[in-house]
Design goal:
three-stranded antiparallel sheet, single chain, alpha+beta
Length: 89
């Protein structure tokens, strides 16, 4: 869970997740939306993958990224459980 919150703490990574919410994108398409270097985008994507927030699939020379919705369901469940524990105290 710590990796997830670390990944979500950065505004660039949150924007990448918002973009992927609309549709799957290649690494190049993601990089084109930012005014930072491609290695920096690659680093952000790597952290998102480590947190299991995104999935990647290589297709030819491109890598396509998509949201891992299962992890988001786990996060929502954690928040509800966290809130329930807080209401009981």
């Amino acid at each position: 869970m710590n990796d997830i919150f670390k990944a979500l703490a950065d505004p660039t990574r949150r924007k990448i997740l918002s973009m992927l919410r609309e549709k799957d994108l290649t690494a190049g398409e993601i990089a084109d939306a930012f005014n930072i270097s491609k290695p920096s985008i690659s680093h952000h994507l790597s952290l998102l993958k480590q947190a299991n927030l995104v999935q990647s699939e290589k297709q030819g020379q491109n890598i396509n990224y998509s949201l891992n919705t299962t992890v988001f369901q786990d996060i929502i469940q954690w928040f509800f459980e966290f809130r329930e524990r807080g209401d009981k105290e």
